[in-house]
Amino acid sequence: MTHALVEAGAQVVVVDRMVDGHGGDRRNLVGLDVDLLECDIGDPAVADGLADVDVIFNVAGQVSHTASMRDPIRDLQLNALSHAAFLETVRRVNPGARVVHTSTRQVYGRAKGERVDETQHAAPVDVNGVAKWAGEQLHLVYHQAYGIASTCLRLTNVYGPRQRLTSDELGFLPVFFRRALTGDAIQLFGDGSQRRDVLHVDDVVSALFAATDPGVAGEVLNVGGPRDHTLVEIARLITSLAGSGNAPVVVPWPQEHRAIDIGSFHTDGSKIEAALGWSASIDLEQGVGSTLAFYRERPWYLSST
Amino acid sequence: MTHALVEAGAQVVVVDRMVDGHGGDRRNLVGLDVDLLECDIGDPAVADGLADVDVIFNVAGQVSHTASMRDPIRDLQLNALSHAAFLETVRRVNPGARVVHTSTRQVYGRAKGERVDETQHAAPVDVNGVAKWAGEQLHLVYHQAYGIASTCLRLTNVYGPRQRLTSDELGFLPVFFRRALTGDAIQLFGDGSQRRDVLHVDDVVSALFAATDPGVAGEVLNVGGPRDHTLVEIARLITSLAGSGNAPVVVPWPQEHRAIDIGSFHTDGSKIEAALGWSASIDLEQGVGSTLAFYRERPWYLSST
Fold it and tell me: Quick check: pTM over 0.95?
């Protein structure tokens, strides 16, 4: 997103606490003319960076489901409390800014039908889903009570360039890419028949930009991928395009994953398509191919901590 | 609840942080043979009190909507983070205990129809509603992931004996009672035409006891009053039964209340009635009369801090 903003001529302030094991990495900003404030979004120091901006993309958060179960307090702090403090800062220094917040399809928990649209109840199965819902709803409360023009996007699983590959806790996609690139077999929990619609980061960026439309202030919008696939299909495609030769293997469910697994999930993106004309445009084959090419040219991602 | 439990022969450990301005008051326990642990439910010291109990009534929380907007972080800490820490303690020391948690109809926000049942989406209008929803959903996550037998009750506005009367921030009912008992006119924001179903504390206690039924583990249940009334009706009835002579007066909406007002709300209690045969039995006239009699005999409630 920062790369796309700079390319479009925007002046950008990046706020990142660079939490260990999370996605933040200074090397992702090398060569970009941006300011970096290295602090939590809930830190009052953020006020300096926020005061004069037109648009705030609030994409801060902890995304690991298993980590949220091992340390619920930390997840609530990073996904809810920090956002409450951040919104207080916005209200104080720049209440007219446009705010787009990224939430997650994890707030829905298990799918109740074939496709999940925004009318399905939030019923999270892990602490991360609870905390992310709280974070998004705080944005809506500040919209209703104080007129802060916030929009929340519920993203499905994201992959693509500049994702941290070395953690096993930032979703299955970076793990799949890392193992394919290092020649290790991708491990599938259970039988790998669960289905997911996955989303290339460039589609996330275009959704974030589209969501600055004032017509969707106060709204929650699903952001899904172009279609759904089984995890086996995704693993095979990544393996095959990586040319690693090691076929995916099925392994028993680790208990900490099984306890919070949601099974198959397919986002219904009708609402954002109707409101903003946005839909995901990067299909899996194209997205996986360009992602593998990106990482092959930057092998440090495979050992980055 | 503690009085009813002791009367029924239960051995009771009370955990209360006695937060300034909240409902906790040591004098409510005078004459009862109970242990009091004076700490936050998220404090690990709670483990001593929890280890051997059969049932845990988790009624801890901060209930003020306006306070939640003035200090969002504190509300999230008291209604969500403390409960996450508490559930971790339960999981560690007594995972077989039955847990009943009290949530609030505030999680729904504004009513979408004449009566609000559990199928209406949670869409809170203030930080308190967000934080209470997070607290209840954490209980459901611990039910699904770890088998902790939790049930969450969404209570409407509660009144009755032993409520703190001296705060203006614990709902409108204690304020109405205090003003009627001190001879001050009850103030109604706007025109007082908003409707609410209100609930006597003895009905809350019977709902809490009914909800220990194992058949409703993992469920969220509304707990509403016997019928709905306008705030004008409630104010007039309290004034008339108190014999204070000062008629209720209409005042302009204070901005901090107006920003988060939900208008009329009438709980649909069909689910708990079908599941447990429970419905509220104390009508307003009877409940107000006995509540006024209780406070008249204990005038210190009118000056308690």
Answer: yes
Measure in Å the smallest separation between the Cα of A255 and chain B Cα atoms: 10
Q: Which residues of A94-115 are buried (b: 16+ CB within 10 A; e: fewer)?
A: beebbbbbbbbbbbbbebeeeb
Cα B164 to Cα A194, B22, B159, B257: the distances in Å are 52, 7, 10, 20
Q: How many other C-beta atoms lie within 10 A of the C-beta of residue B113?
A: 10
pLDDT tens over chain B, length 305 residues: 999 999 999 999 999 999 988 888 898 999 999 999 999 999 999 999 999 999 999 999 999 999 999 999 999 999 999 999 999 999 999 999 999 999 999 999 999 999 999 999 999 999 999 999 999 999 999 999 999 999 999 999 999 999 999 999 899 999 999 999 999 999 999 899 999 999 999 999 999 999 999 999 999 999 999 999 999 999 999 999 999 778 999 999 999 999 999 999 999 999 999 999 999 999 999 999 999 999 999 999 998 76
Residue A157 CB: number of other CB atoms within 10 A? 21
Instruction: Choose among B84, B87, B127: nearest Cβ to A141.
Output: B127
Beta strands in chain A (DSSP E): 13-15, 35-37, 55-58, 98-104, 149-155, 158-159, 187-189, 195-197, 199-200, 220-223, 228-230, 249-251
* A282: Cα separation from own chain's centroid: 16
**Which residues of B touch chain A, with CB atoms under 8 Å apart?**
69, 72-73, 76-77, 80-81, 84-85, 87-88, 119, 121-127, 129-131, 133-134, 137-138, 140-141, 144-146, 259-260
Taking an 8 Å cut-off on Cβ atoms, the answer to whether B138 and A121 are in contact is no
Quick one: residue A162, left, alpha or beta (phi over 0 = left, psi -120 to 50 = alpha)? left
Residue of chain A whose alpha carbon sits nearest to that of B77: A81
Query: Which amino acid type is present at position A265?
Result: F
d(CA B219, CA B271): 10
- Contact (CB<8Å) B87/A80: no
Query: How far is it, in rounded angstroms, from Cα A168 to Cα A289?
Result: 21
d(CA A135, CA A103): 8
Which residue shows structure tokens 């809810």?
Answer: A80
CA distance B72 to chain A (A): 6
A202, two tokens: 């460039």
Q: How far apart are CA B75 and CA B83, in angstroms?
A: 12
Q: How far apart are CA B288 and CA A11, in angstroms?
A: 62
Point out the residue among A72, A125, A145 whose CB comes nearest to the CB of B84.
A72
**For A147, which residue in chain B has the nearest alpha carbon?**
B259
Tally of residues, chain A:
305
